[in-house]
Amino acid sequence: MREQDRPVVVEVWTDLGCPWCYVGKHRLQAAIERRPDADRFEVRLRSFELNPGAPREPETIESAFIRSHGGDATVVRDAERRIQALARSEGLEFSLDRLDANTFDVHRVLHLANEQGLGTAFFSALQDRFFAGTVDPFDPDALVHVAESVGLDGDRVRQVLAGTEYAADVHADRAEGAALGLTGVPFVVVDRQVAVPGAQSVETYGQVLDQVAAKVDVRG
């Protein structure tokens, strides 16, 4: 395979309940879809729990933030409304009634899905429905249903959820991201050449893709 014909891998460290991951994901996808060679770019999702110590029992966004960072509910709600307005201005649904809980099991299922080439489809479907307020990702049955909707075997997902498979993979993703300079998510690494922290604009993502694609073509 010629160098310029190989896929350009775009790795995205992310967490399910991170609003900026949600917005950034759609901006990155828009930047890719604008390109005539969009099918050249392969997005791979990597795990990074923002709050590994979060309880498994769902709680409100306000309660989760205050428990972890302090403050009061009014400040949290105002911040949520600002992000909601921004998301909706970009055509994205954004419910203020989402719940928050530990995402470790979601990440374990993501690794199962990644093995089958369905990681991006699974996580994206789950995150979109979560922010739209139409699914509870912390309900195992709901999680299985979304997994099945993108082609995963429901019984296999239940088997993973009942055990500890892929736990080491989740931890390894976090460690690898940290080694690359990650301190929060979203964190995008394009072709292991350029790292892009935070939710950037469509234009900024596009510039990075241009930059990396040009380097690949020159090497080819």
Which descriptors apply to this entry?
DSBA-like_thioredoxin_dom, alpha+beta, Thioredoxin-like_sf, Glutaredoxin, isomerase, globular, DsbA family dithiol-disulfide isomerase, four-stranded mixed β-sheet, 53% helix, 220 residues, isomerase activity, two-stranded antiparallel ribbon
Structure description:
By secondary structure, the chain is of the alpha+beta class. The chain has a single domain (3-219), classed as Glutaredoxin (3-Layer(aba) Sandwich). The protein is 53% helix and 12% strand. It contains 9 helices and 6 strands. A 4-stranded mixed beta sheet has the order 2-1-5-6. Strands 3-4 form a two-stranded antiparallel ribbon. Strand 5 and strand 6 form a beta hairpin. InterPro entries: DSBA-like_thioredoxin_dom, Thioredoxin-like_sf. This is DsbA family dithiol-disulfide isomerase. Pfam families: DSBA. Keywords: Isomerase.
Parts with pLDDT < 50 across at least 5 consecutive residues: none
Q: Please give the domain count.
A: 1
- Give the SSE order as H and E letters: EHEEHHEHHHHHEEH
The N- and C-terminal alpha carbons lie at a distance of 10 Å
> Which CATH class?
Alpha Beta
The CATH architecture is 3-Layer(aba) Sandwich
Lateral arrangement of strands in the main beta sheet: 2-1-5-6
Strand content: 5-15%
Question: What is the number of helices?
Answer: 9
> What does the average pLDDT come to?
94
Q: Which range best describes the helical content: under 10%, 10-25%, 25-40%, 40-55%, 55-70% or over 70%?
A: 40-55%
Q: How many β-strand runs?
A: 6
Radius of gyration: 18 Å
